[in-house]
């Protein structure tokens, strides 16, 4: 399979841009994370942007595989599910860090988790590898749910 570099770069840029803008909007409140009570197993603050960057790149590669896979399957549900999970992803950090609405952020994160499951399902119908690339994202959001709930309970 020949790599279509322009499409690949655009597909990677989409989730990176969503994550980058969300991070910019919350950057003034990131210090808060160091000051609040956190549950056990909370990673250091520097790890979050590293993990998210990797996950956004994986999301972009997954999107690229769906975009470039030749299939008779209707791709619209896959693209919609991708957009929906990015929407929930974008606003979670704003709700958590800027609004400090920890319970609402947890509920929002549950909706994000469901959106990711649907995204995996629809991507899998088109390209199995694309679905597998989203599994680390689902695992990380599950862990983030534990952290978010812990912060709500402890604060």
Shape: elongated
The arrangement of helices and strands along the chain is: HHHHHHH
Tell me the Rg in angstroms. 16 Å
* Main CATH class: Mainly Alpha
User: In the CATH classification, which architecture applies?
Assistant: Up-down Bundle
Tell me the major beta sheet: none
As residue ranges, the low-confidence spans are none
What share of residues is helical?
over 70%
CATH fold group? Ferritin
Distance between the termini: 51 Å
Task: Look at the helices and sheets and give the structural class.
Answer: mainly alpha
Estimate what percentage of residues fall within beta strands: under 5%
User: Strand tally, please?
Assistant: 0
